[in-house]
Write a structure and sequence with these properties.
mainly alpha; about 70% helix
Length: about 140
């Protein structure tokens, strides 16, 4: 059965391609040039606790270099988001290229965000416990 991709799904799909192109440009120009320097976390410097975003940049860079386990250690939500991104883009590309004959396109659901929030909360809790109880830094 042929299915037409709805407007929101198509807009997210186009934004996905734009994000990929901008990300590649950012990676090639800024990070690969040696001009990139990570900005230290102000929350961590002030409180001594990791914030929910701590490790996100390191996780992304590790993932781009193919170090998936290292990326999971730095920030599990980044890996989760990357998996969702790849699945969304692949399934919607198949649906678009098939003209709707293969209705396999992944749809946006709020549940994906709720899972990400839970993962992020668990991540920051575990990282801070490791740091302050057992002395294991990120």
């Amino acid at each position: 059965m042929k299915r037409k991709m709805d407007c929101l799904q198509f807009q997210i799909y186009l934004l996905g391609w734009a994000a990929l192109l901008l990300g590649l440009l950012f990676y090639l120009v800024w990070i690969n040039s040696g001009m990139f320097q990570q900005v230290p976390c102000a929350f961590y410097r002030l409180t001594g606790f990791y914030c929910p975003g701590c490790g996100g940049t390191r996780a992304l860079l590790s993932l781009l270099q193919g170090y998936v386990l290292q990326a999971l250690w730095y920030h599990v939500t980044v890996v989760y988001g990357a998996i969702l991104y790849v699945l969304y883009m692949l399934t919607n590309s198949v649906e678009l290229l098939s003209g709707g004959r293969l209705p396999v396109g992944m749809k946006y659901r709020n549940g994906y965000l709720y899972v990400a929030l839970v993962l992020m909360a668990l991540h920051v809790l575990i990282k801070n416990l490791l740091l302050h109880v057992w002395g294991i830094p990120m």
